[in-house]
Specification:
The complex is a heterodimer. Chain A is mainly beta. Chain A has 7 helices and 46 strands.
């Protein structure tokens, strides 16, 4: 009670003071409604002239009375009185009229102009969240379809996801790396309806312990599932049957998925002969910022055999138009947590892939004085079986990191080619058979530990073994000749290092390590008919060995603060070739910087110099028949490659207005010490790699823009790029020819869903490519233009029924060739049954029945024109069950 | 040993008013550092503020979803315990238990909150936050917001309100600014509220819970502090069981030493 008295006395005193003190202005009054009833909770705002920010305010009490005590500097002020459900009153008053009563008349609550739903993209620190349902609609079949529509995100034809122009470095599901880079299968099989949001983790450093020590320019992607989807198995079966002009078609997928934070399981069984390339599921699509050699990168480098059949260049079309396949793929990926911190991922997959490529090609080799021209009609059959198992165990803690990855892989390739060769008016039939197997086992162990003094110790060790027997059989029917080539490559490799990172204000690191590799190549060539080219027959059989030791030490330095980030590394290596008794000492400096101008603009810059250690693949001293009309050998020179490269990028993003923009440029200079000398005898081309210092320059610049207009649900994209490569080749009489390849590309597209029942995607893409070969005497120039216009329209009649049309138009123009025009028309319709989770799809493809497609390609001093046979008109009926 | 029954009368309130339709729902993302020694372990919640012409209700959307899931499970499965996966995902939705009803006509707040599965309720006068308005502006949800600061029960807050939305409302107990508060953060960055959507709605707001122990704010805060310091003792006291502090059982010893992190929004009573 005493307190209450005190309050009263103080209030009275205050009112008294206010009334009689001129320095403090008291603005007051009563607010009532039209029935004279006092209104409480009304806000009274004071604005100075020309200002939209509130200078002072009051909220009326239960008696409708408001008071504002404030020094008013101006003679007159603006008073705004407002309350939801009443008309806004506004008055201009002077200092001398400080008692203002208001009567508010009611009006219906109008919220339209202020209503804001959750924005489709939100940013919090380095994480950008996309609300999937805001972008998806009934025509989207899977998560991958929706990802394509997200502003700032681009999905390539092989499934690679790029964020603001850069490919991502991790693909997580609920923060876990279940897919280990093979994420296309995830995007094709996750239903978007089960996904809550997609998070882009900018500047993502996958090793948590190094977050503030080593910066990353790359982004990671995290798929967050809805709570109800996490709690259960998601089972889906798609079964399709169809008919093309020649064949019966099938396309089936069974998926069994369960994703939650602790355990994840993803199994898919899929097969088709409809042109869906399931081998893309085995590709690693993530890429690290710093190219650190590891089992995956070495494995992909060894994917190309030394011997192969002559094949057709596949056209730059969607694969459903030309891939004549029979593919079966099964995978099971499982993740579980062991002992709280260890995540174990077991992955097993099997691929059986058969395809038929048919068509004709014309290849021209520019050889200085003359040009070798070869016309071939081809009928090639590829059969590949691949089995891969990998087991990885990772603990990614703030003070401890452990990872061990074991990969076992075996690939069997069996390829048959049937060629009708027309060279210089001679026609002959060539049968080719190529076998190529790869057996691979590798293990990679990495441990990082933070000490009590906060410094970090790192230990890494990795090793692999590769065995790759290959053979090429060629039968020239007319001459009754048989050529056999046997090759076997075996490689073993071991690398180990320790690293100490001083983690104080200055981040310094010191690394030391050792590497050893032993590589063998055995080859045997029999029956090669051109004695003019091979001369000494002892070069047809032999075995080579290449083994080296490398000792390396590295110092590194990093700066990480809010605006500026830098990584600098200087590894120095001592390389010792055992067989040659040769030594080489080299340093490979690497610098990366990033500067953040503000929340929207950033720039990145990088420079690196690297030395590529020669592999046995480049060092075949004996002749090897690489395909039926090419033999090659290395004269004995150890290949050496030195690469300087620099890049600069400027990135812009405005999440509120959905703008993404980047411009990037790069240059690289590759110094090489070997060039092939080419000699022709009939259809046969001999390439002898001899010592000749030469340099290849690459320059590229590109700009990409992506803008989303929320009001009309439309994403606009614009891209421009220019690539230039300059290299040299030796042509006849040991003349040097300079080769310049230029490719310019511009593309524009939009994906719109402005109206509820209509979704439209439009893309236009124009490419101009030029190949220019010059010698002192003569030169040759080939160029072509390619234009592609694509329009896809989907009509959404209801949530149950949708129907879509897709038109693709291609125009290929090249000097000396009749302009080629192609039009592809596709149709699809989907009906979804309510509740039962059952759906029916009908697809009709290539309705215009286009039967072949012409492509022009350049490679070194050759160019080729390919006519590739396409898949004929086809109809497919698919049933989908979710159970 | 605690015995809160001594501190408050255990009785039930039956306040049931005919609910009126709310016209606006503002959803706030809430991030709380509940344990200041482990700042990285934040608690996240999605809360909602439903506003009618005469009152408002502030509640945890996650928590409400969780309760509904449990009711649904019970309806379909009876007394069978939840499957591990359902129960796990359900457990993850545990949000703040607090519910605040603001009634404009009598300028009062009614707060419902839980301690150890017991719901408490108390009423308090709508607090005077003594907001100071500053000229800074920022866009939240595309709404121009102006900055205001206040000091309230031991914490300094920075709030951003939208002039364009004429309701003197905000998350938690916050109100009294000339526009809807869309963002609040305290100076220690322990409590963070940010609006993620403002939606037009037209449905009655849920009535106040009918079963709750009626208390006073200061008393509730004191019980909560004691509960956090010794949850085991508190729980046993409510269950009318006795555990001897001198027990040699290591589990009991560990249990008796266990503490909940204590970092409430209201650090002082006034």
């Amino acid at each position: 009670m005493k307190n209450d008295y005190l309050k009263w006395i103080l209030s009275l005193l205050l009112i008294f003071l206010c009334q009689y003190t001129f320095s403090q202005t008291v603005l007051s009054g009563q607010i009532t409604d039209t029935n004279q009833q006092p209104l409480s909770g009304v806000s009274v705002r004071v604005y100075e002239f020309g200002s939209t920010s509130i200078k002072a305010f009051a909220i009326s009490n239960q008696k409708g009375i408001y008071r504002i005590n404030q020094n008013l500097e101006k003679d007159s002020i603006r008073l705004v009185v407002s309350m939801m459900g009443y008309k806004i009153e506004e008055r201009i008053i002077t200092k001398f009229n400080l008692n203002q009563d208001f009567i508010l008349s009611s009006q219906p609550i109008e919220l339209q102009e202020v209503i804001v739903k959750t924005p489709p993209i939100r940013q919090s620190h380095d994480t950008i969240s996309y609300d999937i349902k805001k972008f998806a609609n009934a025509t989207d079949r899977n998560l991958g379809d929706v990802l394509k529509k997200l502003p700032g995100i681009d999905v390539g034809t092989d499934g690679t996801i790029k964020y603001n122009g850069e490919s991502i470095n991790k693909y997580y599901t609920e923060g876990k790396d279940l897919f280990q880079g093979n994420y296309k299968i995830a995007n094709d099989n996750f239903r978007w309806q089960d996904v809550e949001r997609i998070e882009v983790l900018e500047n993502h450093q996958p090793i948590r312990m190094l977050t503030d020590i080593k910066f990353s320019e790359k982004a990671g992607l995290n798929v967050i599932f809805k709570e109800d989807a996490k709690a259960k198995w998601i089972k889906k079966l798609d079964a399709g049957i169809g008919k093309s002009t020649e064949d019966y078609l099938y396309e089936n997928t069974l998926s069994l998925i369960r994703i939650n934070k602790k355990t994840q399981s993803f199994s898919v069984l899929s097969n088709n002969n409809t042109g869906v390339d399931l081998s893309l599921y085995t590709l690693i699509l993530t890429s690290d910022q710093f190219f650190e050699m590891g089992p995956r990168s070495v494995l992909s480098k060894n994917a190309n055999p030394l011997t192969s059949i002559i094949g057709l260049n596949p056209p730059a079309l969607d694969q459903r138009f030309f891939l004549n396949n029979q593919t079966h793929y099964v995978t099971s990926k499982n993740l579980w947590t062991v002992g709280k911190i260890y995540e174990t991922v077991l992955n097993i997959d099997f691929l059986k892939d058969q395809k038929i490529n048919q068509g004709s090609s014309e290849t021209r080799y520019f050889l200085g004085k003359d040009t070798l021209s070869i016309k071939e009609n081809q009928d090639n059959r590829y059969a590949k079986n691949q089995i891969e198992g990998s087991l990885s165990m990772v603990a990614n803690q703030p003070k401890y990191y452990f990872s061990n990855k074991l990969i076992v892989k075996s690939i069997w390739n069996n390829i048959d080619g049937n060629i009708l060769n027309k060279t210089n008016d001679n026609t002959q039939t060539v049968l080719q058979g190529n076998k190529f197997d790869t057996k691979w086992v590798s293990d990679e162990l990495k441990i990082l530990k933070r000490s009590v003094t906060n410094n970090i110790f790192e230990f890494k060790m990795w090793a692999y073994y590769l065995d790759s027997p290959q053979s090429l059989n060629v039968a020239l029917e007319s001459k009754n000749q048989h050529i056999f080539q046997d090759v076997r490559i075996q490689k073993s490799f071991f690398n180990l290092y320790t690293n100490f990172i001083l983690n104080k204000k200055i981040k310094l690191n010191v690394k030391t390590g050792i590497e050893y590799s032993n590589q063998n190549l055995t080859s045997e060539l029999t029956g090669f008919p051109s004695s003019k080219l091979i001369g000494d027959s002892s070069l047809l059989m032999g075995s080579q060995k290449l083994s080296y030791w490398r000792l390396f030490a590295e110092t590194g330095y990093s700066i990480i603060n809010d605006r500026f980030k830098l990584n600098f590394n200087l590894p120095i290596s001592v390389l010792y070739w055992q067989n040659f008794d040769r030594k080489r000492i080299y340093g490979e400096p690497r610098l990366n910087m990033s500067y953040l101008f503000n929340s929207k603009w950033t720039t990145n810059m990088g420079y690196s110099y690297s030395y590529r250690i020669a592999e046995i693949n480049d060092f075949n001293k004996d002749f090897i028949l690489s395909n039926y009309r090419n033999i090659s050998r290395n004269e004995g020179q150890l290949p050496e490659n030195q690469i300087h490269s620099g890049n600069l990028s400027i990135n812009f993003k405005d999440i509120i207005h959905f703008w993404f923009f980047n411009i990037r440029g790069g240059i690289s200079e590759i110094k090489n010490n070997i060039l092939p000398v080419q000699t022709v005898d009939g259809i046969y081309l001999r390439q002898v790699k001899t010592f000749e210092n030469n340099t290849t320059f690459n320059k590229n610049i590109s700009a990409d823009m992506s803008k989303y207009v929320y009001e009309i649900k439309t994403k606009f994209t614009l891209g421009v790029s220019v690539q230039n490569q300059q290299s040299v080749r030796l042509v006849s009489d040991n003349q040097l020819a300079t080769i310049e390849n230029i490719s310019k590309n511009i593309s524009f597209g939009f994906s719109a869903k402005a109206i509820n029942w209509l979704q439209t995607q439009f893309d236009i893409n124009f490419t101009k490519s030029t190949n220019n070969i010059k010698t002192n005497i003569t030169d040759s120039k080939v160029n072509f233009n390619k234009t592609n216009i694509r329009l896809q329209t989907d009509l959404i009649f209801s949530k149950q029924l949708t129907c879509g049309f897709e038109a693709n138009k291609y125009l290929i123009e090249s000097a000396g060739i009749q302009p080629q025009n192609y039009l592809f028309l596709d149709f699809s319709t989907t009906y979804r049954f309510k509740k039962s989770g059952f759906e029916m799809n009908l697809y009709a493809r290539n309705l215009t029945n286009e039967n072949s497609f012409q492509t022009i390609n350049f490679a070194d001093n050759s160019s080729s024109t390919t006519n590739f046979m396409l898949r004929s008109r086809q109809v497919l009926l698919k049933f989908g069950f979710k159970f | 040993m605690l015995a809160f029954t001594v501190l408050v009368d255990k009785k039930y309130s039956f306040a049931q008013n005919t609910p009126e339709n709310a016209y606006l729902l503002c959803k706030y993302k809430v991030i709380i550092v509940s344990d200041t020694s482990k700042r990285q372990n934040t608690q996240e919640d999605l809360t909602g503020l439903e506003i009618t012409k005469n009152m408002s209700r502030y509640f945890s959307i996650y928590n409400e979803e969780r309760t509904n899931e449990q009711i649904e499970w019970k309806k379909n499965n009876g007394d069978k315990p939840m499957d591990a996966s359902v129960s796990f995902s359900n457990y993850k939705k545990r949000g703040l238990k607090i519910k605040i009803y603001k009634k404009y006509s009598d300028n009062q707040l009614t707060v419902f909150d839980n301690i150890a599965n017991e719901t408490f309720t108390f009423e308090e006068q709508n607090p005077d936050f003594a907001w100071k308005i500053l000229p800074d502006t920022m866009k939240v949800l595309n709404q121009v917001c102006q900055k205001a600061t206040c000091q309230f029960r031991g914490r300094k807050y920075e709030a951003w309100f939208a002039q364009g939305i004429n309701v003197s409302e905000g998350p938690w107990k916050f109100n009294g600014l000339p526009g809807l508060i869309l963002k609040v953060i305290d100076s220690k960055q322990d409590y963070f509220f940010e609006a993620i959507s403002i939606e037009k709605i037209d449905y009655p707001i849920a009535p106040k819970p009918t079963k709750a122990i009626v208390s006073k704010r200061t008393v509730f805060n004191r019980i909560y502090k004691e509960f956090a310091a010794n949850p085991a003792g508190f729980t046993n006291a409510t269950q009318q069981e006795e555990i001897s502090k001198n027990s040699n059982d290591p589990f009991v010893q560990k249990l008796m030493k266990f503490k909940f992190p204590y970092n409430p929004m209201e650090l002082t009573d006034n």
